[in-house]
Amino acid sequence: AVAVLRLGHRPGRDERMTTHVGLTARALGADRVWFPDNAGQSLETVEDITDRFGGPFAVELTDSPQGVIGDWEGRVVHLTMYGERVQDVEDEIRKAHRSEGDESGGEPILIVVGAEKVPFDVYEAADWNVGVTNQPHSEVAGLAVFLDRLFEGRELEREWADADRRVVPMETGKRVESEDDG
Ligand code: SAM
User: Sorted alphabetically, which Gene3D superfamilies does this protein's record hold (predicted)?
Assistant: First the structure.
């Protein structure tokens, strides 16, 4: 299992960013995302996309993001520009994810991304603090690159269950089939 935790959410200002953390987690192979409990609007958007484009993918609010980290029975990866270089630690993280633990074949991984300044406790609670470059950029970009490294591209082949609609890839143009069209 791979879950994503979004720490911090400034209503209004962070609405799209928090939503995009959820959509990126879903599209690139994570199983679930937690948002802070003031991000109900982002939760609704991600649930709506999951209803239309398929799952499984879970979205939940939490009033205690740090509690989610404390209760997590697996490994914790905190994405931060101050962390170890992803290219230096990805093998170790993949190995833990694949070889230990639960019935899905590996140790569950919780990926934590911030919004504003992240409390130092989170750096200490993490098994790995990981930088996708040591340059400041975005939680959405960091999450996307990290998930693709973790799954080594296999997430791109994922099949979606219970989708109402499916995009038919094309060289030019836009085609979306609804479930009724087969
Ligand atoms: N300035 C804040 C701090 O010092 O904690 C971070 C703000 S940044 C816009 C929001 C989030 O993007 C961070 O918490 C981190 O999860 C992610 N992020 C930004 N740059 C990153 C990088 N180079 N590697 C990994 N994650 C990054």
Answer: 3.40.1280.10
